[in-house]
Amino acid sequence: MKIFVVDDEPIALSSVRRLLRHRGYQDVEVCDSAPAAAARIKDGDFDVVFVDLLMPGMDGLQLLEAVKPFKPSTEFIMLTAVDDVNTAVKAIRLGAYDYLVKPVENERLLLTLEHAYERRGLLTGLAGAGSRQERLLSEAFSAIVTQSPRLKELLLFAQTMARSGNPVLITGESGTGKELLAQAIHQAGPEPDGPFVAVNVASVSDSLFESQFFGHARGAFTGATASYPGFFEQANGGTLFLDEIGELPRNLQVKFLRVLEEKKVTRLGDPQQIAVNVRIVSATNVDLDKACQEGAFRLDLMYRLKSVHLHLPPLREREEDIPLLAEHFLHRACLRHGKELSGFTPEAIDHLQLQEYPGNIRQLAQQVENAVLMAAGPFIIPEDFGQQAGPSQFSFARKLCTLKEDAEAHTAYVLRQSKGDHPRAAKILGVTLRHLQRKIAVMKKQPGWRQILDDI
User: Fold this and answer.
1) Alpha carbons 366 and 359: distance in angstroms, whole number
2) d(Cα 281, Cα 262) in Å, to the nearest integer?
3) Which of 112, 202, 258, 382 could pair with 244 as two cysteines, CB 3.0-4.6 Å apart?
4) What sign does the dihedral 229-232-236-242 (CA atoms) show?
5) If you average pLDDT over each of 86-90, 158-162, 195-199, 314-318, which comes out highest?
6) How far apart are the C-alpha atoms of 192 and 237, rounded to whole Å?
7) Which of 87-91, 124-128, 291-295, 367-371 comes out lowest in average pLDDT?
8) 174 phi and psi angles, rounded to 5 deg
9) β-bridge mates for residue 343, sequence order
10) pLDDT tens digit string along 404-430?
11) What is the DSSP letter of 189?
């Protein structure tokens, strides 16, 4: 078991570490700074983390909120000298396993540690082989194509949280599959047979907001020729998915918050309140914490929406999923366009894996669909993606460019400037060494690049 203890008091750190090691837990790491601990947790693979609540700069709750979405199966146990129910509830909502008040009896601390580790094992399937993890995921998540261990951990955590019926906030870059995850949470939740209503908040104008979300009675305004049930009523007994929730206008947030708190809506032109039982799943690629600090988003509303926080990684952090997703989109595109293709050539897969994908999965799907339309043979080849061959079209001595402008020339430029030092070049490019080595191998297959790269 790998244990991490975070506390700004050296005495507390040494005391907990000494207790754990005395009881046989040798793999114990400590840290006296919350920001440093956040970076270490994201990079590491800890089973259980003990976190002090009151720390300077970043407190324990802020640390938990910052790292839990990235490490959903790591269990966090909060330690604090302050016995406050509201703080304890908030910690649990943010994903903490338990909340212990100092001074903690040794046996209580050790028992909580064991129970937390057992829960982690249940979520990640540590007691069994890799196939155990697959079996633990329900059919509701089958539409999410992945073999990434990190994403599988996230899905297992999402599945557990889905059963609670609590609000869920999904964050991630555009095109990472937030709506697909929201649908899976709905299917794995307590009301899978209820409606799933998806709304892009940014597309609803301020003037129509109340009418669209809360509904209106006949004659409420000019043109209201019939009563209209708003989105909350439409999703009653199911899930309301709010995409781009960060775009919700500030002046409308208080009305939205009131519905979430009272679980009742009032149609425009009708004084009668209507009770609604709706699970809220929201999504955004906006930093809501920053928006709250800048006054663009209400803090109380964010906490209402953020009972459970799930962060979807971008495609560049799921490199192993690219071939799997490409085959999935190939099959789908072939069915849509009535074509029969056998797959991709190795060079075509190499081409796909070397892309940056600022548009993430949505961009990959579009590239594959375009290639299916272009393909003339049984296999998709690099040229089907519109790839240009050879470096002759580039001026290698030109000024430094971005990867999007010219991936090959930029890579060669950085390799030359770093005097062929691959690890240093990979760091400058912002890619893994493995990614760079694959890119070099592919470039050497193109006319003209082999000689340039061999000369570096």
Assistant:
1) 10
2) 17
3) 202
4) positive
5) 195-199
6) 9
7) 124-128
8) -60, 135
9) 379
10) 446 777 788 788 778 888 988 888 777
11) S
Token pair for 404: 């999007």
CA distances in angstroms from 73 to 67, 153, 405, listed in the order given: 11, 6, 39
pLDDT > 60? residue 396: no
| Alpha-carbon 444 to chain mean position | 35
- The predicted structure's pLDDT at residue 125: 54
Instruction: Answer whether 279's CB lies under 8 Å from 241's CB.
Output: no
Residue type, 322: I
Instruction: Supply the pTM of this predicted model.
Output: 0.63
Distance (Å, rounded) from C-alpha 380 to C-alpha 347? 9
Q: Which amino acid is at 15?
A: S
Tell me: the pLDDT tens digits for 51-79?
999 898 889 999 998 898 888 888 999 99
In whole angstroms, give the CA distance from residue 64 to residue 62: 5
Cα dihedral across residues 172, 178, 184, 189: positive or negative = positive
Contact 316, 357 (CB under 8 A): yes
Q: Residue 344 in contact with residue 384, Cβ under 8 Å? A: no
- Report whether 236 contacts 277 (CB < 8 A): yes
Residue 288 binned pLDDT confidence (cut-offs 50, 70, 90): confident
pLDDT at 393 over 70: no
Cα–chain center distance at 74: 15
Give the C-alpha separation, 111 to 441, whole Å. Answer: 52
Query: Which tens digits make up the pLDDT trace of 207-222?
Result: 888 889 998 888 778 7
SS3 state of residue 131: helix
Q: How far apart are CA 34 and CA 119, in angstroms?
A: 24
Q: In terms of DSSP H, where are the helices of 44-127?
A: 60-67, 85-93, 106-124
What burial letters (b/e) apply to 173-211, b meaning 16+ CB within 10 Å? bebbbbbbbbbbbbbbbebeebebbbbebeebeeeebbb
Per-residue pLDDT reduced to its tens digit, 98-114: 888 888 888 889 888 88
Rg of the chain taking only CA atoms, in angstroms = 26
Show the tokens assigned to 237.
Answer: 């007994």
User: Residue holding tokens 């796909």?
Assistant: 352
Q: Which residues contact 453 (CB under 8 A, 6 or more apart)?
A: 412, 415, 440, 443, 444
Tell me the average pLDDT of the chain: 85
Reading the block at residue 362, the tokens are 């949505």
Among 178, 182, 214, 200, which Cα is nearest to 279's? 182
- Tracing tokens 């799943």 back to the chain, one arrives at 281
